[in-house]
């Protein structure tokens, strides 16, 4: 199996092997300079050179170098295999914690240094060229599996996994010619911290009725990445509201950021400039609308942020941003507050569109569903009777069920922004859920104490939390119409 090595080792090996690359491939630079990979150095998400480190193809091996005078870098290490075969690398991509396999992750071999990823709302549709000039590329399926074909052969081959602004680069110590090279299970995953790669910049507002900050912690983001705005971490927490008798988490625990208090959410979301610094904004249910904290200027700022390419996840009572929002936001759904259904409510997956079918299969794969297309949830709410199908897409819904005191309703829906723009110009996205997702965690406790049990262990993900993580990673991905499958990028 292919095992991963650190970038420093890769750089040293590449430097030592560079002359051998020129000797092994027939594409040498006419000036006599050695062929090189995606040169560069530094952090875990930067490019690095690579080389064959000697002649891996003894006489009579039956393989030949594809490279010619026109190849560059790692292209010169591709092999023409006998009998129509190919050199492959296979494996499974996981969430940062290394446990949940992920759907729709791009996996590729770069041939140049990776460009930096800019923070903040931006319009980057799926047809934007990937950084690093990929020369082998694949997309993970609902099992999280990928197979890269026609991979360069040799030592220290770079491998990048990317989902939106999540990106990590690792190194394959050796790729053998004309066979499959499986990666070690659990080692190909998204980054936990900035020393491993790039994470999206996330703002999360807390609330007394949901504890979504714990979802980010449970998915595997290191505690060190949760900081005040000036702290440099990739996740900034802001203090939301809670109804009487409840409390929302409002500070870090002692030993993390000095136990600092969170800045107020109402000051954060009232400014478009504040919002636009972030790739994603996550809004935990507060238990009520708290309209005084969401004046018209704030409603407009959130609308403009989403329309400019921002990504928003809103839990339950944060439907205020949609119901009372500007322009066409209120049209996204048929809003009608009803009594809360009972715990254990059977919720169905809408499989009439490609990513809905993928969610159905993925929930079975991760143990969140025993009946394909159905999941039982606790703490369901009711605010949405149906969605406007011209604008929004229903993902999870429930039929009327007297046994659970439930009216028919929608539990997850999404839409792309700006609403009404041509699909190719839509690059923002909004997810709304009518569920208190993180119902097993403790709101109000200093972060991350409320995410842990009495022994200090992180609580296991529930079925409905796994469904939410699928939606969060989908929210991170490049934006495509929901009625189309995710596009498979094509290497040059």
Please provide a written account of the structure.
With 492 residues, the chain is an alpha/beta fold. The protein folds into two domains: 7-182, Immunoglobulin-like; 200-476, Class I glutamine amidotransferase (GATase) domain (Rossmann fold, 3-Layer(aba) Sandwich). The chain is 15% helix and 22% strand. It contains eight helices and 23 strands. The strands form five sheets. Strands 11, 12, 13, 14, 15, 16, 18, 19, 21, 22 and 23 form an eleven-stranded mixed β-sheet that branches. Strands 5-4-7-8-10 form a five-stranded antiparallel β-sheet. Strand 15 (280-283), helix 5 (296-307) and strand 16 (311-315) form a beta-alpha-beta unit. The longest helix is centred in the first third of the chain and has 18 residues, at 7-24. The radius of gyration is 24 Å and the shape is globular. The relative contact order is 0.13.
């Amino acid at each position: 199996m292919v095992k991963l090595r650190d970038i420093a080792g890769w750089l040293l090996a590449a430097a030592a092997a560079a002359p051998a690359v020129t000797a092994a491939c027939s594409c040498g630079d006419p000036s006599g300079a050695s062929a090189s990979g995606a040169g560069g150095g530094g952090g875990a998400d930067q490019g690095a050179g690579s080389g064959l480190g000697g002649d891996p193809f003894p006489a009579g091996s039956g393989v030949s170098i594809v490279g010619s005078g026109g190849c560059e870098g790692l292209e010169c290490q591709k092999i023409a295999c006998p009998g129509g075969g190919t050199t492959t690398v296979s494996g499974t991509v996981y969430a940062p914690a290394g446990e949940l396999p992920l759907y729709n992750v791009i996996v590729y071999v770069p041939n140049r240094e990776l460009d930096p990823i800019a923070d903040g709302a931006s319009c980057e549709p799926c047809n934007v060229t990937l950084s690093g000039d990929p020369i082998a590329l694949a997309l993970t399926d609902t099992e999280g599996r990928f197979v890269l074909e026609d991979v360069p052969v040799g030592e220290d081959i770079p491998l990048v996994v990317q989902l939106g602004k999540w990106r990590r680069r690792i190194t394959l110590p050796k790729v053998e010619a004309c066979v499959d090279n499986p990666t070690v299970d659990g080692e190909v995953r998204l980054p936990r911290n900035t020393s491993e790669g790039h994470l999206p910049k996330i703002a999360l507002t807390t609330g007394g009725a949901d504890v979504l900050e714990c979802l980010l912690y449970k998915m595997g983001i290191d505690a060190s990445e949760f900081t005040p705005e000036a702290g440099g971490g990739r996740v900034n927490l802001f203090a939301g509201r809670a109804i009487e008798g409840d409390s929302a988490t409002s500070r870090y625990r002692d030993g993390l950021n000095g136990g600092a208090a969170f800045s107020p959410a109402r000051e954060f979301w009232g400014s478009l400039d504040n919002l636009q610094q972030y790739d994603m904004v996550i809004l935990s249910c507060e238990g009520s609308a708290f309209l005084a904290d969401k004046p018209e200027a704030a409603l407009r700022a959130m609308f403009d942020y989403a329309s400019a390419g921002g990504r928003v996840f809103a839990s339950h009572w944060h439907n205020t941003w949609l119901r009372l929002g500007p322009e066409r936001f209120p049209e996204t759904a048929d809003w009608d507050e009803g009594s809360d259904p009972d715990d254990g409510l059977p919720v169905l997956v809408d499989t009439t569109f490609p990513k809905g079918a993928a969610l159905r299969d993925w929930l079975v794969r991760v143990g969140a569903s025993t009946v394909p297309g159905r999941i039982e949830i606790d703490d369901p709410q009711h605010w949405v009777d149906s969605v406007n199908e011209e604008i929004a897409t229903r993902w999870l819904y429930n039929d009327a069920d007297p046994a659970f005191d439930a009216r028919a309703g929608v539990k997850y829906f999404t839409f792309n922004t700006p609403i009404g723009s041509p699909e190719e110009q839509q690059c923002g996205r909004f997810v709304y859920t009518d569920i208190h997702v993180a119902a097993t965690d403790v709101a109000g406790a200093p972060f991350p104490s409320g995410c842990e049990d009495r022994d200090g262990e992180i609580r296991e993900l529930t079925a409905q939390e796994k469904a939410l993580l699928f939606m969060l990673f989908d929210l991170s991905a490049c934006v495509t119409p929901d009625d189309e499958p995710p596009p498979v990028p094509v290497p040059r």
